[in-house]
Amino acid sequence: MFYDFINKKCLNTDSPEEAFVYLLDSSVKNHELTLKLMNSQKREQIEKLFVHATKTYLQALIENKVHDLSLNYSDVEVALNFYAFGISGLLLMYCQQKDLDTKILAKQICRFLPSQNQL
User: Fold this and answer.
1) Which residue, among 22, 19, 3, has the nearest Cα to 11 in the 3D structure?
2) Which residue among 7, 36, 79, 95 has its CA within the 20 to 30 Å range from the CA of 109?
3) For 104-115, what is each residue's pLDDT tens digit?
């Protein structure tokens, strides 16, 4: 699946910021297809796909990069859903902009992510 490939590429980056640049670039590059799907009967499936891919990436990021997790499982699940839905919404909204500066948006997204010592 396309987003499984994207997630693997994102996890091989040096930072979350690089991963979000890659994810945003991919979303912008495929914006016409995404828009067609969002305007079709498949909208709900596309939204779920974006959320699932984002949540999978964030979960893998936590598992691979955060060693001392101070949150309990229930809190982690709520945090993952919160960030996955928020980031997916941003991806769906901004992928429509052909002139999007993905590096700036990636920096902005990363500023809202908790640092390792907050988890």
Assistant:
1) 19
2) 36
3) 999 999 888 876
Cα separation of 82 and 90, whole Å? Answer: 13
Measured in degrees and rounded to the nearest 5, phi and psi for residue 113 equal -75, 145
Provide the b/e sequence for 61-100 (b: ≥16 CB within 10 Å): bbeeebeeeeeeeeebeebbeebbeebbebbbebbeeeeb
Give pLDDT, residue 103. Answer: 93
- Other C-beta atoms lying within 10 Å of the C-beta of residue 48: 11
C-alpha to C-alpha distance for 114 and 116, rounded to whole angstroms: 7
Dist CA 67 CA 92 (whole Å): 31
pLDDT of residue 24 exceeding 90: no
DSSP string, 52-78: HHHHHHHHHHHHHH-SS--S-HHHHHH
For the entire predicted model, the pTM comes to 0.76
